[in-house]
């Protein structure tokens, strides 16, 4: 059987679909990938897994309808040349236009995975701008056209299903909430957190909706009382509409409350260096970084929003706070500073929950059973 994976970037194929590719190939499937970019080193890594990488033309964040239509037909021709039995699309643009292109190419077995609803569906404290409302209406319209053409639509959390499908009355035949994509629990094994040199950290693109502003403001509050506490963020600036500006980043760097590390290659080592993992996001699918932090035994502070609430049991493996609330975030951090034994006990609970809910092998096997069951 030939399986085609359509994503946005080659790096995300390696980060999030490596185990899927390995297991499909073990089942004698031929795996192709299509991404918008074509970095030689990442393509070589995909090839080493046994898959065949390829590129398709699309703007990752552009909204030009004419070019999107043209590029959809071009993508359809690429799919037709590959002749896959199954097409699996993930991330918003590949889901929308990959599904249309695959159906135009005559592929009957198309599966979509929405790993979060993104910027347009993420609530902020202030009212949505007219531009954002227009973008959300456009995206919803496109989902209404494309998702019914998929054989099955998968979601990581039930809130995404409710907010997109139920509220907008989109008729899809076979939805399923599958939970997190999981973590390699052997690779991300438990390590004891340092409670003598407490370090709070995030792994996140520098986006407003990830709660970066709240993290910086909370760090200022905590450092005013406990100046020796360390704060850092691992992640780069992003061209997303909600991206932190270069000017704002430079100002924060000058203030010096938080270390901004930029994009890092060794996430596991960074997480091992943390005492507590923090993600004050406004909305997620089910964040991979939180799953990884839980696997190595880190207590978590996160928000009571879709996707994040699937990772924390309040007062068991961390604290769940309302979104946008700097004081509550700072209070949760201070609770760990003043009660450092919680860092260890809650971290042990995080590891236990990760073993129960976020085993990559179990999650991948579930996904493969869906993709290869062509009689659904």
Commentary on this structure:
With 376 residues, the protein is α/β, with parallel strands linked by helices. It has 2 domains: 2-182 and 360-372, 3-Layer(aba) Sandwich (Rossmann fold), CATH 3.40.50; 199-357, Glycogen Phosphorylase B (Rossmann fold, 3-Layer(aba) Sandwich), CATH 3.40.50. Helices cover 44% and strands 16% of the residues. The protein has 14 helices and 13 strands. The protein has helices at 10-16, 18-26, 40-48, 65-82, 92-104, 130-146, 158-166, 212-225, 246-255, 267-273, 288-295, 326-338, 341-357, 360-372, and strands spanning 2-6, 30-35, 52-55, 86-90, 109-114, 152-155, 175-177, 199-203, 230-234, 259-262, 276-279, 299-303, 318-321. The strands form 2 sheets. Strands 3-2-1-4-5-6-7 form a 7-stranded parallel sheet, with helices on both faces. Strand 4, helix 5 (92-104) and strand 5 (109-114) form a beta-alpha-beta unit. Helix 1 (10-16) packs parallel to helix 3 (40-48), helix 2 (18-26) crosses helix 14 and helix 5 packs parallel to helix 6 (130-146). The longest helix has 18 residues, at 65-82.
Order of helices and strands: EHHEHEHEHEHEHEEHEHEHEHEEHHH
Uncertain regions: pLDDT < 50 for 5+ in a row? none
Structural class: alpha/beta
CATH architecture of the largest domain: 3-Layer(aba) Sandwich
Q: Note the overall shape.
A: globular
Largest sheet: 7 strands, parallel
Which strands sit side by side, in order, in the main sheet? 3-2-1-4-5-6-7
How many individual domains?
Answer: 2
- Look at the structure and name the CATH superfamily of the largest domain: Glycogen Phosphorylase B
Which value, in Å, is the CA radius of gyration? 21 Å
Mean pLDDT: 94
- Strand residues, percent: 15-25%
Relative helix content: 40-55%
Number of strands: 13
CATH topology of the largest domain: Rossmann fold
Given the structure, what is the number of helices?
A: 14
Alpha carbon gap, first and last residue: 16 Å
CATH class of the largest domain: Alpha Beta
């Amino acid at each position: 059987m030939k399986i085609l994976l359509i994503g946005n970037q080659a790096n995300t194929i390696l980060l999030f679909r490596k185990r899927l590719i390995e297991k499909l190939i073990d089942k004698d499937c031929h795996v192709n990938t299509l991404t918008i970019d074509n970095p030689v080193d990442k393509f070589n890594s995909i090839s080493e897994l046994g898959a065949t990488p390829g590129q398709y033309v699309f703007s990752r964040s552009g909204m030009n309808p004419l070019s999107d239509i043209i590029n959809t037909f071009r993508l359809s021709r690429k799919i037709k040349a590959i002749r896959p039995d199954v097409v699996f699309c993930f991330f918003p643009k590949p889901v929308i236009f990959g599904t249309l292109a695959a159906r135009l190419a005559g592929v009957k077995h198309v599966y979509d995975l929405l790993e979060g609803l993104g910027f347009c569906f993420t609530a902020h404290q202030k009212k949505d701008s007219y531009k954002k409302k227009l973008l959300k209406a456009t995206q919803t319209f496109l989902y209404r056209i494309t998702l019914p053409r998929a054989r099955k639509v998968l979601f990581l959390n039930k809130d995404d299903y409710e907010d997109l499908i139920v509220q907008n009355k989109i008729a899809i035949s076979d939805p399923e909430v599958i939970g997190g994509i999981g973590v390699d629990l052997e690779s991300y094994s438990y390590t004891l957190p340092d409670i003598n040199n407490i370090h709070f950290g995030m792994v996140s693109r520098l986006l407003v909706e990830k709660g970066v502003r709240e993290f910086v403001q909370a760090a200022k509050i905590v450092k005013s009382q406990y100046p020796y506490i360390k704060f850092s963020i691992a992640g780069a600036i992003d061209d997303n509409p909600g991206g932190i500006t270069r000017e704002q980043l430079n100002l924060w760097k000058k203030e010096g409350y938080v270390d901004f590390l930029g994009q890092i290659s060794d996430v596991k080592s960074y997480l091992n260096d943390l005492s507590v993992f923090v993600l004050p996001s406004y909305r997620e699918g089910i964040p991979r970084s939180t799953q990884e932090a839980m696997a190595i035994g880190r207590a978590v502070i996160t928000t009571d929003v879709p996707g994040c609430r699937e990772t924390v049991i309040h007062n068991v493996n961390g604290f769940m706070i309302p979104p946008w609330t700097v004081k509550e975030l700072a209070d949760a951090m201070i609770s760990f500073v003043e009660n450092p034994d919680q860092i260890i006990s809650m971290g042990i609970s995080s590891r236990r929950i990760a073993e129960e809910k976020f085993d990559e092998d179990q999650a991948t096997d579930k996904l493969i059973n869906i993709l290869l069951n062509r009689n659904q």
